[in-house]
Amino acid sequence: MPPRPFPVDLGRTSSYICQSCLSSLRGGLKQQPWIPRLHSQAARKPLPPAQYSTSAARLGTSRVATPSKETQKAAAQSRDDAEHEEEEEEPPSHPVEIKYFNEDRPGHYRRIRDGSDFGGVSGGLDAEIETAINELEQQMVNTVQMLQLMEKQGQQDKADELRKQFKKTLRVQYKGKTGPEGETYGLLQIPGFSGQRRRPIAQLNQFLGRESVVKGGIPKPKDVADCWKYYSAARKTLSTSWGNVPREVWDFLWMVLSWEGPENPNRMHHIYVLAKDMQSAGVVLRDSQQLLAIEAMFIEGWQEPAIEAWKKAVVTLGSKPDTFRAYWELGVRMLCLHGDVERAQRAADTLLKAAQEAKADADARILIPIIRALATKEPASEQAWESYRRLRRLLGPSITIEDYDEVIACFLAGNCVEHGLQAFVDMMFSNAIDIRGKTKLPAAVSNQFFVGKWLKRLIGAGDLDGAYKVVVYLQAKGITASPIQLNGLIGAWLRSETAENLGKAESLAWKMIQSRLRYVTLRRRESQLSGPIRLYDNSGLSPVAEEEELPYTAKATAETFSLLAENYCQRGLHDRLQDLWEVFKQAEINTTTFMMNQLIKSHTQNSHPEEAVRFYRTMTQDQKVRPDGHTFLALFNTLSVNRLVTRDASLAEQDINAGRQFFSEMVTANWVLDDEDILIHLPRTILFSMLKAKDFAGMAIASRAMRELFSFIPTEALLIELAVGSNTLRVQTKRNMERILEGSRTIERLIKKHRRDVGQEDENVLMTPEQKATELTQVLEQLIMLKAGAQDADPKEVRPLLEAAASEMGVYDVVVKKDPNAIARHRKIAVANQG
């Protein structure tokens, strides 16, 4: 249920008067002192101490006020009565003492010490702050009066000069907030709340007092969020006394909360609530604020009250030059969304007629909401077309591609595909070709190149349903979209990840696969016959239903299978991927590396790592599919140290042999490292796999080999993660922060040790990129030795272990012999891209 709408009446007055105006009206009169009042005989009876406290607590706090003339007369009469009673009875031996208390929180009372404390509690501000504000306002009033007096005496030039200096001094002393239109806001505070209710008001006042809020006229996202946070928390308290909120505070809150931009996603809700509160407070909304309030009411779900409010404002907002255009445009949009298209057309005619008579500024694009509303109604599709022609005529040469796109989207959303096609033809050929009502389209339109440009534009704009409607419509005209265009639509559907679009993507992809299978079957039969023949489909495949929306499609390609394979792998649908692979073999399409990689990943995710490796061997050895970096990344993920949470010593031993074998095949395979993502993730995965399997010799050899073949240089972040032994430190938890600090200390200690070894202990010396890369590589090797517990081992004892690992990993010539020919032969990255 939508929230309760605020009253439609937008013309209320405010009773707020600022202290500056009051000070000028008073004319500098001083407050009269309190007149002492003597108590009568009944009042002279003292109360017990406990009753003093209770009575004061009930009274709470009150603001000190100057007594009126009636009060003074009553005091004099009481004094006379008291003198008459004194002749009959002696006065009390001690004066009556009244104690005042303030309820800080429910059930807890604090005694008020003096007048300053009393004023602070009753006024909502500390006594010093309130005194400073009053003095500042009085000084400003005196300055204004002095300048007015100088002007009356004929010293206009001197008064103007002093006024400029006064404004300049004021800006220097107090940096006021500046709005987007250059308006300035002074000291923003809400007085008059005390006790437990004071806390949310104090927080809002603290926000209003920030100097950084709305700096330069543009609120930051944090400004908007904090403004709504503190204001919504203080609304309940403010509602008990709306009159305490100054008009300048309302204007400032409106300026921040109504800011239009991505930093204010709930803008209309904020405006709706704020406008309702301002009207409850009796604050008169400005014309622009009234328009926004009506729009916010409509968007918040109160459509009929908003339209009624719009109608009632026709005499005021609809006739003023400043709000004329905004008023009628708002009416057109609301009426179109509400379904009252006829009234919306009359409102648009009023606006455009006034513009034609040069009475007001108007934009013909106001017809686009009318086109959208008419296109959704099948009987009114021709009216929508006429409105489009009127729009095109009014805009003339100023019509833009974005205008055409919006109109086309309106027609496609209303299933007026022919009108949409004609609008696209108008955009492409400048109204030179008319295709409406024709059964056969002109050659300039009925080709895959023209269709592809339109589909690409629709898919890029996110209008996927419109793109599919175009495919169906053009196929009915005898134009079949190419596989590349359909694959683009399928990929966009799959990337949206909605259930409806996933179903549409699978349906279209499998239709394309069926077309491919029919083609393969007919091609096989044709190859078995000689001479000209007439082919017909009797393959036993599922027949094509004549009533289908898309009875035939283009044939599937390797990209079609790859799109489905990637989606099935991401969703963990291993059985569907297996079925797709069987159909892929029937389609007689050469196996692609991408398809192989998806199947390897799917087998691994389905806890079949042996099947994944076996499939890899079959594809690369029997069918000669060339692997790439993603292939070896998927292979290293088949190791148990990357799959299992609990480590198994026997499986870890197998991982050492398998990891070295994968690394050897990765080096000898003919592929190029041309993807930045794989350049980051593959070395990282290799190092962590060997670290978890405790293959420290292989880890050291892998680091050296990747430096030569990949131009790999470890980053400090990677070194810290390796020092900790975990690659999940990006999750910000208390334990991870402690581990990061521990790893940072280890790396810092190793860096200092390395610099001492090379004789460079001065930390302020700038290092060249080559020196820094060497340092990080050496620190990585020291870290590996530290992890292996061999930091103090004799290099002669370690060398045989490293050479054996290099032989198993296929990089003996690269790492040990450093053969330039071997390095050049196995390099996976171009020389120009090194580093």
Task: Explain this structure.
This protein is an all-alpha fold. Among the domains are: 19-175, no CATH class; 631-833, no CATH class. It is built from 37 helices and 4 strands. The strands form 2 sheets. Strands 1-2 form a two-stranded antiparallel ribbon. Strand 3 (177-178) and strand 4 (184-185) form a beta hairpin. Helix 14 runs antiparallel to helix 15, helix 23 packs parallel to helix 25 and helix 25 runs parallel beside helix 27. The radius of gyration is 41 Å and the shape is flat. The two termini are 61 Å apart. 28% of the residues are buried. Residues 11-17, 24-73, 81-94, 170-175, 538-546 and 831-835 have low confidence and may be disordered.
Largest sheet: 2 strands, antiparallel
Low-confidence stretches: 11-17, 24-73, 81-94, 170-175, 538-546, 831-835
* Number of beta-strand segments: 4
**Global outline:** flat
Helicity, as a percent range: 55-70%
Main sheet strand line-up: 1-2
Rg measurement, Å: 41 Å
**What's the end-to-end separation, in Å?**
61 Å
| Contiguous helical run count | 37
Q: Averaging pLDDT over every residue, what do you get?
A: 80
State the secondary-structure class: mainly alpha
The proportion of strand residues reads under 5%
Protein name: Pentatricopeptide repeat protein
Keywords: Repeat
Region (Disordered): 39-99
The gist of it:
InterPro entries: TPR-like_helical_dom_sf (IPR011990). Helices cover 61% and strands 2% of the residues.
List the helices and strands and how they pair.
Blueprint: H1 19-26, H2 49-59, H3 69-86, E1 101-105, E2 108-111, H4 115-123, H5 127-152, H6 156-173, E3 177-178, E4 184-185, H7 198-208, H8 221-238, H9 247-257, H10 267-280, H11 287-299, H12 303-312, H13 324-338, H14 341-356, H15 367-375, H16 381-395, H17 401-413, H18 417-429, H19 448-460, H20 464-476, H21 483-496, H22 499-527, H23 558-570, H24 574-586, H25 593-605, H26 609-622, H27 629-636, H28 640-643, H29 649-668, H30 676-692, H31 696-709, H32 716-724, H33 734-757, H34 769-788, H35 795-808, H36 812-816, H37 820-826
Antiparallel strand pairs: 1-2, 3-4
Helix pairs in contact: 1-5, 5-6, 7-8, 9-10, 10-11, 11-12, 12-13, 13-14, 13-15, 14-15, 15-16, 15-17, 17-18, 19-20, 19-21, 21-22, 21-23, 23-24, 23-25, 24-25, 25-26, 25-27, 27-29, 27-30, 29-30, 30-31, 31-34, 31-35, 32-33, 32-34, 33-34
